[in-house]
Amino acid sequence: MKMYVCIKQIPDPNTVVSKLDPNTKRLVRSGVSLVLDPGDESTISAAIKLRDTIGNSELTAISMGPASAQEAMRRSLAMGVDRAILVTDPALAGSDALSTARVLAAVLKKEGADLIFCSTESTDGYTGMVPGGIAECLGIPQLTFAREINIEGQKAVIKRVTLTGYQTVECPLPAVVTIASGSFEAIYPTMKGIMGAKKKPFSQLNLADLGIDASEVGEAGARERVMTIGKVEARAAGQVIKDEGNGAQAIADFLQRYQLL
Amino acid sequence: MTPPVISPTGGWVGSAIFVLVFIGALIIFGIRAGRLVALLAKARPEDRTDHIDDRIGEFFLTVLGQQGVLRDPIPGLAHFFTFWGFVIIQFGLLNLMLGAFNASLPVLGGNRAFSIVLDIFVILVAVALIVFAFRRAVVRPRQLSSFLHGPWDGFIILGLILLVIVTLSLLEGFEYAASNGAAWTLIGSWIGPWFSGLGTRDTTILYRFFWWAHVLTVLYFLTYLPRSKHLHLMATPFNVFFRNYKAKGALPLMEDLEEREDYGVAKAEQFTWKQLLDGYACTECGRCNTVCPATNTDKPLFPKEIVLGVKEALFVRSAEILGENTLWAKLGVAGVPLDETAKEKAAHHEPMVGGIISNDALWACTTCRACMEICPVSIEHVPKIVDMRRHLVMEESEFPTEVTPLFNNIERNANPWEISNDKRADWAEGLGVPLMAENPAAEVLYWVGCMGSFDRRNQRVATAVVKILQAAHVNFAILGPEESCTGDPARRIGNEYLWQMMAQQNIETLNGYGFNTAVDSSNGQNGHAPGASAEGPTLKPRTIITACPHCFNTIKNEYPQLGGNYEVMHHTVFIEQLLADGKIKLPEGFDQRKLTYHDPCYIGRYNDIYEEPRRVLTVLNSNGISEMARNRNKSFCCGGGGGRAWMEERTGKRINQTRVNEALSTGAEVLAAACPFCITMFDDGVKGVEAEEKLQVEDISEIVARAIETPSPATRLEA
Amino acid sequence: MPNTIWVLVELEDGKPARSSLEVLSKAAQLGRAEAIVLGSAAAEVASTLGEYGAEKVYAHADAAYDDYLTLPAVDTVSQLLQQHQPALLLLATTYDLRDIAARLDVRNNMGLITDATDLQFDGDTLLVTVPWGGENVVTATFPKSGTGIVLARPKAFSVERHEGKTAEVEMLNIPLNAESQKIKILERIEVQSEGPALEDATVIVSGGRGLGKPENFRLVEELATALGGAAGATRAIVDAGWVPYSYQVGQTGKTVKPTLYVACGISGAIQHLAGMKGSKYIVAINRDEHAPIFSVADFGVIGDVLTILPQLTAEVKKRKAQ
Q1: Interface contact A247-C316, CB threshold 8 A
Q2: 3-state secondary structure (DSSP) of residue C228
Q3: Nearest to A169 among C115, C184, C285 (CB)
Q4: Taking 50 as the threshold, does the pLDDT of residue B30 lie above it?
Q5: Angle at the Cα of B688 from the Cα atoms of B684 and B694, rounded to 5 degrees
Q6: Which tens digits make up the pLDDT trace of B522-537?
C-alpha cells in the first residue's frame, strides 16, 4: 500500500510563545528552535505501526515549508518513514489552509496515494482544516480524530474520539485519516534510524513541478487577512491577591471572565 | 628429596595408574578451562595493561592479602584461612603425589615445620567450613542465593573441601600408625595412635586408600572447578590484576558513533573480555546485593544476578560463539552444564537483555556504584548495566516512556525541561553575576548546571554559591545561555549519542574561553579567551567549580574522552579551600543544630571526596556530624542517579524515603547535602514520610552563605 | 440591508446542540440569521430555531445525515451556497462541523477563520477576533468577495432565547448523492465515567502537601466535580500514599494541558511544573506567598486552601446554576 503522512515543522511549542510579526503578520520563525510538530511525531508513529502491521507498504512523509523543514523531515525518516518529499517555494510563504491543502493534494495525486495520515491539527496553528481540505481536493473521504486505525480489506476503520466516548467509523480507500493527539506513543529514533535517515530518498519539489500558479497560493492566494494585532487584555502576568475572605469570590470572577465555568 | 616412609601406591602399577588418572584429569581440566579462555578471546578487545606497576602491587594485596574479602570480618577471616589453607594444601598435595615416585618436594618435603603449618591450616579450614556451613544452612543470607548454579553448588563445594581435609587427616593418621610414628605429622600423631590396634598391614592399606581418596578428590575438584562458582579461584587473581585503573567516574566511550554496526550490548559476546571475566570471577558472595539501593527497596534488580546473568548468557550460547567446527564443539565437552530438559533449554535460551536479565532490572539501577565499591574481586556492574541500557535506548528505542521528553528537551532546549535555554541566567538577575561573555578574564567559571539554573529549590543553592564567591572576592563568571546540559543523565540512561552531542557543544564553549588545560598555551587560548589577550596570557589553569556532582563528574572524568581537559572542583572542595586559605571566615559553631551529612555518590564513591564537606560542616557546627550508619563509601544513594530522577519509581519502597528515615534516626534536624539531585529527592522524601517539621534538607553552601551573611563578633571586629 | 449569516445547526440525539445555539444567538445579533438543519429530526428542530434568533431555516429531514459523516452535509450546504450568497457561514467548533467546514472551504473556494472568540461587521467588512498564542489577539477578515466560514470557539457566546419567536421554515427536498454516503458510522460508544480522565480533562484541580492531611483531598475532588473536571495530585502526596499513582501530575506522572488548572496547596516544584505548565489558565491557592507556583499562575490567592476550597466549590455551583 502507498501510505503518506503530512507533517510540519513548527517553532518548538514547549519553549516558545508563538509570535506574530506585526509587519508581515506572519508567524515569527527566526531565532526560535524549529522542531517536527510533536503531534506529527505521534501521527508518524501511528502510520509506521500500521505500515509494519499490514506489510508490503511504503510510507512517505510530505511537507510544505521552507528549506529548513528538511530537518524535521529527517527526524521523520529517523523514526522510520521510508522517504520524504518537501515542497518548497518562496511563493508559498503565507499560504492559508486552503492553499496548503491544494499543494499537498497535488503531490499526493501525482504519487497515487492509498492512505494519507495527518495530525488532527498542527500544534502551532490549530486550525485543523488542512486534512479535510486535502481529502476534498482529492475527492476522497476522510476519517478524523482517530485514536485507533485498522485496514479491513479495501476499507479503513477507525475509532473516532467524541466528547462522551467514541464512534466506530469506516470508509473505502483511498482516504485521509487524522490521528487524535496523544493517541499513539511517539517513537524515539534509534541510532540505526538516525544514521539510516541520511541515506533515505529525499526529494524537493517547487510550484512549477506541481503545475500550480504562484498567484493561487501563498500570501497572494490567501482568502483571509490579518487586519490588526493586539495584546490580550488583562492576562497580566499572574495577578496574586491575599485572601481576606474574598479569595473564593475573586477566583470565581476570574473563571467567569475567561469563560471557564 | 626425602622419599615417603611408605610408598603410597605400593609399586609401579599403582604409580602408573596414578599417572594416567592425573594426566586424564589435567586434560579434562584443560579442555574445560581452555574453552572458557576461548570464549574470552571471542569477546570485544579492551586494553587493561596501563599502570602495570600498580597492578602488580595491588594484585599481591588483594589476592595474597585477601584485602577485599576481609572487609566483612567473619566470613572474611574464614575465607582468608580457607584460601591460604588451600594454597598450602596444594603444596602438601604435590608432595604427596611425588610420593608415588618415591620422591618429594625440595625443601618442604620431610620438613617438619612445613608439615606442622600444613596441619594447622587443615584445622583452620575445618573451622572455616563450620562457619560457612552455618551461614549457608542456618543464617542463609539472602545475597547467597544462586539462580545460576542452584542451591546445591555451595554445599557440593563445601563437601568437597571437607573431603579433602578429612582424607588428608586420615591418610596422615594411618601413615603414622603404619610407620609406627616414623612418618610424623601433627594430625597424624594425634589420631594415628587410635589405629595402632589394627596392625601394620591394615593401616598400610587404609593409608593407601586415603591417599588415593585425597588425590582423587583434589583432581575431581580440579575438573569440577571450571563449571562451578569456584571458578573464581582461578579467575579472581586475573580479574583483580586487570581491574579498571581509569577514572572511576568515566563510563567507557562509545567510539565511531557514525560508523558502528551496533550500539550497546544485547548479546554476551558484545561485551569486552574483561566484562566477561567478571562473570568467571564472581564468587557469588552477594555483597553487591546487600548494598544496592534498588535491591534494598524491593526493586527487581540484584547486581549479582546481572553479573551471573551475563555469565549464563555467555555459557548457553558458547557453542554458537565458538563456532561449530572448533575443537570444543567436536569434543562435546563443555565447561558449561548442558541443558537437559526442554524447560531448562527454554529458560536458558532467552535473549540476555529482556530475558535472562529483565529490562526492569536494568532500569532500576541508580548507578550509585555501591556494588562495585564493595565487590572484593573488582567486578564492574555499572558499565555492564549501562552497556545493556545503550542497546535498549539506541537500538531498540525501548525505555520508560517518561524518559522521552527528557531526551527531547535536552536535545532541543539544552536542559531537561520544556524551558528555553535563553532563560538559564534568569535566576542570577540582580545578584551581580557576570556572564563569561561579559567577563572573559574570570579566573573561576561557576558551572551552575540545569538544576541550579532552573529548579527553584536549587536556585537558592546557586544564589548561596554566588554569595560565597563574592564574599571571597573571587573573580568569577557564569556561562548563562551558553551553558548546556552536560549530558550526564542521557549517558547514564544509555543515550551515548546525546551525551556526545552535549559534551562536544560544551567542550567547544569551554575551549573558546580558554579553560582547556590540554590546549597548547602558546596559541593564547590557555588562561584567557582571545578577547582578553591584551592582559597577557596566564599560564595558571583556570578553574571550573560546580555544585552539581553529576556535572562535576562528567566534565572532570568523561569530557577528557572527547578532548576536553579541565580543572574542575566541586563547590564543597572549593569552599574548604577558601576556608583553609583564609579567603572566607566562618564563625565557628555558627549553626549548632544537630546535623547529619549525606555523601552524594558522584563526589563520594566516584571521586573520593569525603572529608572536605565534613571539614566545612565541622567548622560551622562544633558538635560535629551525627553520622548515619551508612556513610562515606557505604553511603546509600538518594535514588536520583543514573537518570532515575526522571523515571517513575513504581515498585517497592521509596529509595529517598529509606534514606530520609535513616537520617531521621540519627536525630538530626538538618540533613546536609551537596548535590541538587539529592536535595530534590530528599525534599520529596521528607514530604513523603511527613517529616517537614523535623528535618530540613540544606546544601552545605546554604549554611556557609548564611554564616557569612550573619555578622559575628569576630567579623565585626575585623570590619 | 443587514448581512445574512448562515448557521449550520448540529443535532445531538435529535436536539440542537448547545454550541450551535450559542452561535445562532450570536448570528442574530450580527444581522439576519438563517439556520440550516440536516438529519432525521430536522423538521421538528427547525420549527424551534426561531426562538434562538433564526429568521429562516433550511431543513432537510433525511437519516443519511445521521449515519454518514460530513459528505452529505457538504453536498447540501454547497448546493444552497450556489443559490444564495450569505455574507458568512458561522459554525461552532465541534468534531463534526470542523470536518464539514474544511471541505466546504475547498469545494467552494471560500476562505476560513478558526477559533474566533468574537465577530462584528464594520459596514460590509467582517472583523473576526482570534486569540493568538496566549499573548496576542488578532483581528482578521475575508479580503475577497463571497461567503467566508468562521468557526467559533465553544462557549464564546451565550444562548439567547426569545420564546414564541418563529422562523420561516423551508423544507428541502433534494435527492442525496449515493456516492457521498461513504463515511459510515458503525457504532457509537458512550464511555461511562464519573468524570473525565486526567489526560483528557479540560479542567484539572490538583492538591499538594498544603492540604495537610489525606482526608482533605476530598475538598479537591469536590471542586473538580463542581467544575466538571478531574482531580490530580503532586508526587509528594502520591508518595505519601494519600492518592494512587494514577493521580500524579508532573515530570514523572502525567503531563497535562487542560484549559484550566487549579493548584491547591502546591508549592510548584519543577517536577510538578513540568507536567502542567502547558495549561491554558492556571489558578493557584497557597499559604506561602513565595511559592514558585505563583510565578506561573494567571491568578493566585495567598491564603488557607482549607478555607478557600469549600467556599470556591459553593460559589462555582452557585454561578453554574444561574
Answers
A1: no
A2: coil
A3: C184
A4: yes
A5: 90
A6: 444 444 444 444 444 4
